[in-house]
Amino acid sequence: TRTHSLDSLGGHSKRQHIHEKLASQVERQMDESTTKISRRTLQTLQNDLKQSPNSCPQEGYLLPSGVSVTLVVQSSIDRIWLLSETCSRWTEPIVLVVYLQWTMLNEKAQKSTAISQIVDVNMACPQMTVVPHVHDDRDNGEGTTTYPVNIMRNRGLDVVDTSHVLILDVDLIPSGDLSHVAKDNLMDEVSMTETNGDFQVPLKALVVPAFERKVHRDPPCTNAASCQKFLRDDSRFLPLLFNDLNECIKDKDCDVFQKDMNWEGHHTTKSDSWLNGEWFEGAKENNKKTVRRIKCFDSLRYEPYILLPWCPPAKSAHPQPITPYYDERFYGYGKNKIQHISHLRLMGVSFSVLPQSFVVHHPHPESSVKRVWNDKNKNKLHKNMDKLYVQYLAELKDEYSDTKGVVPQCLTPT
């Protein structure tokens, strides 16, 4: 049951209901944690889409009026405080998948504290559905090295019942108008497909430009309390709207996300042009402006945050998602998001850039899983994911060898 169906309950009763439901889900997962669940991978893609426990409505939805977007966020328990800012900005449905370690939950006091923290966030965010994810870390003292990021993203996708979805990490905060601008643009995209009164959902990814809030010290903050202080002391710490972002850029307090450490990751978005308001193609279609299409990737390491079609509009007893799940062989840090972008590109999905709205990264200390990724001498995570990604690309090219319309790599970065 989605939490916003509980509005008729009083505050205390509602809190108790959410707490009991979460506790029950956690207990069940702890009991089942030794059960091996088959992973969703490229090789199992067709079967996964047919038999996925997705929540897409059997009755479908009307086009273009039925277009809506769910935000899916995955997070560890120590960062869910960031959801309060996201919830104040994003008005459409939110699905939060929370990572919980079995060994932590086995301590009664820690389990109670964790569930109370989740309930606190959920109570303040009626549009949010919470999916706890219990990870069995008993055989692995460093639980975060195997952080099951793509399994968690997929568990979030299984709850989505809207036409489109945006998947973010918890430290990426939407601009205040993103849910509205995304919905309006997606409805326009659908409207442009009209033929004799029929509409289609285009197989298109809409890139949401990503920026970061800079703090001119390293580390920017040392723990949750000191990180929370930024927004508590200054409600304008993260830019809310496009003009605020431009001011933040001009003041050198914001920049393109990961520009210094991974320029290829977002360069293809052409953020400088976007910040100048260069959002549309030259010609109009059906009296509507066409958002700027990405004709080629500057780098195949491009990994933007994207709005994607998910639930099909047609009636079906067994609706299948329109776009693929993430590959669950990828875990921890590195290659887990770019594998999905590569999959979409090679299956022929086109890419355009959303006007006006954006996401902005909230600073935080380096995560333990990223430290593991960077420490190539002591840990195999980096090597394992790099090796898997090479294998995965070969699988993709074999799977989609005949696909037309694949966005190419630019001959030279522009």
**Strand sequence of the main sheet, in spatial order?**
3-2-1-4-11-6-12
Task: Measure the end-to-end span.
Answer: 48 Å
Q: Tell me the helix content.
A: 25-40%
How many β-strands, per DSSP? Answer: 13
For the biggest sheet, the summary is: 7 strands, mixed
Gyration radius, in Å? 21 Å
General form = globular
The multimeric state of the shown protein is single chain
How many alpha or pi helices? 13
Uncertain stretches: 1-5
Mean pLDDT: 89
Which class do the helix and strand fractions yield? alpha/beta
Q: Element order, helices and strands?
A: HHEHEHHEHEEHEEHHEHEEEHEEHH
Structure, described:
The protein is globular and about 60 Å long. The N and C termini lie far apart (48 Å). It has 13 helices and 13 strands. Mean pLDDT is 89; it is low at 1-5. It has 414 residues and is of the alpha/beta class. The strands form 3 sheets. Strands 3-2-1-4-11-6-12 form a 7-stranded mixed beta sheet, sandwiched between helices. Strands 5-13-7-8 form a 4-stranded mixed beta sheet. A two-stranded antiparallel ribbon has the order 9-10. Helix 1 (11-32) crosses helix 5 (108-123) and helix 11 (338-346) packs parallel to helix 13. A hairpin with a 2-residue loop joins strand 9 and strand 10 (288-291).
Quick summary of this structure?
This protein has 414 residues and is α/β, with parallel strands linked by helices. The protein is 33% helix and 16% strand.
